[in-house]
Amino acid sequence: MAIAPSSLKLTPLGIFLVLFLMFSSLTSKTEAYDSLDPNGNITIKWDIMQWTADGYVAVVTMYNYQQYRHIQAPGWILGWTWAKKEIIWSMVGGQATEQGDCSKFKGSIPHCCKRDTTIVDLLPGTPYNMQIANCCRGGVISSWVQDPATAASSFQLIVGQAGTTNKTVRVPKNFTLRAPGPGYTCGAAKVVKPSKFVSPDGRRTTQALMTWNVTCTYSQFLAQRTPTCCVSLSSFYNDTIVACPTCACGCQNNNTQPGSCVEGDSPYLASAINGPGKSTLAPLVQCTSHMCPIRVHWHVKLNYKEYWRVKIAVTNFNYRMNYTQWNLVVQHPNFDNLTTVFSFNHKTLNPYGTINDTAMLWGIKYYNDLLMVAGPYGNVQSELLFRKDFSTFTFQKGWAFPRRVYFNGDSCVMPPPDSYPWLPNTASKSISPFSLQTLTFWAVLTCLLICV
């Protein structure tokens, strides 16, 4: 029986739910979009290399196609749900975090019997007979720009109780990637053309029996609701130092939550860092007005006839984290005239085609690519030398300061634009003795001409 249109009435709660679902469906497609790296993602490639009596041998590789976002210690955690009743007989280059209930197996015991499987990378120093290429770095994966040689991570697994042909095997579901915390959303696995492999001498090409891909994208909003870094500013032409905004990454609440931050000279610092039950993922920051683990300071240092110079300092206020292979991404309209970067590596990103206003900066290997925990060594710094484009260059209205700054791929909190160090008004400066004598001379001369 047809329902009359007049009977389709929604309550206020029903209208709210409909609007919420519509908004969620729209935002879920765009929440992970990064305008500075629109094509950045982590692609998981699953290559079946050989069929076995009850399953197959596969090599799983994660490729980090993000330009500046990497996976740092303690590394990635990959999970999925098997489509049927698959098990993992053995693994090389990685391991399942739980074995699960394998009590029904007699004789050979599988490596993992859980239907919801969670895999981690092996650590450096793993015996060679348990390694494959691109494994065993503790789950750390570099960004594609920063170090292409370490921008992939692989492991091999032998799967049982699975299909033994490309028509009977079933693709796993519900892939998840933690790196090491939340932030990544993975799509469904899609069967693609089998991967091809070229021999070292380049004279023979082989291919996988079956391949599927999973694409995972990052959203800072999903990773955490509070920022992780902030920016402070200063200049040679103004004594004002613009600090990070107050409570940029949270506020001090030692009264209600003791231990939320630690004073640098506190006698309880060591016990707070090494105390029982402390997670290495939870930052323990020095007590500051901004409460950010990372502060990036941009100082307009010098002004030359045809050049101008900037000093950048990155300070770590986190007592629990060494930032390995850290990087900065900075937006400024004068990066198309960047001539020299001292003691940092750099690369222009060109996210908008021909417009070159974005640069990626990172440390030099074995020199300053490791940003130490908070303390006397918890900072790195460099200087940038720009050539002036006189059609656009100015120190007025905050032009000399960056538009946006990212640390390890996360957007940093900038100070309010009206607080930027302002260029002093030359008319308000005190007149030098030489200028005063000159003005007096002309005043006397004018008076003599008029009075005669």
Give the end-to-end Cα distance, rounded to a whole number of Å: 112 Å
Question: Hey, roughly how much beta strand do the residues contain?
Answer: 25-35%
Query: How would you sum up the major sheet?
Result: 7 strands, antiparallel
Query: Based on helices, strands and strand pairing, what is the structural class?
Result: mainly beta
Q: Using only CA atoms, what is the Rg?
A: 29 Å
Any idea how many domains?
Answer: 2
Q: What proportion of the residues is helical, as a percent range?
A: under 10%
- Mean pLDDT comes to 85
- The CATH C-level name of the largest domain is Mainly Beta
What is the CATH topology of the largest domain? Immunoglobulin-like
Number of helices: 4
The outline comes out as globular
Oligomeric state of the chains in view: single chain
Based on DSSP secondary structure assignment, what is the total number of beta strands? Answer: 28
Do you know the CATH architecture of the largest domain? Answer: Sandwich
Residue runs with pLDDT of under 50 for 5 or more positions:
1-8, 16-31, 427-452
Structure notes:
With 452 residues, this protein is mainly beta. It has two domains: 35-222, Immunoglobulin-like (Sandwich), CATH 2.60.40; 226-264 and 281-425, Immunoglobulin-like (Sandwich). Helices cover 10% and strands 33% of the residues. The protein has four helices and 28 strands. The chain has helices spanning 12-27, 220-223, 269-274, 433-451; strands at residues 42-51, 56-64, 77-81, 87-92, 94-96, 116-121, 152-160, 173-178, 184-186, 190-192, 196-198, 205-207, 210-218, 229-235, 238-242, 261-262, 285-286, 294-303, 307-316, 323-324, 327-331, 338-342, 345-348, 358-362, 370-371, 379-387, 404-407, 410-411. The strands form seven sheets. Strands 1, 2, 4, 7, 9, 10 and 13 form a seven-stranded antiparallel sheet that branches. Strand 16, helix 3 (269-274) and strand 17 form a beta-alpha-beta unit. The protein is globular. The termini are far apart. The model is unreliable at 1-8, 16-31 and 427-452 (pLDDT under 50). Residues 228-421 form the COBRA C-terminal domain. Residues 1-32 form the signal peptide. Belongs to the COBRA family. Keywords: Glycoprotein, Signal.
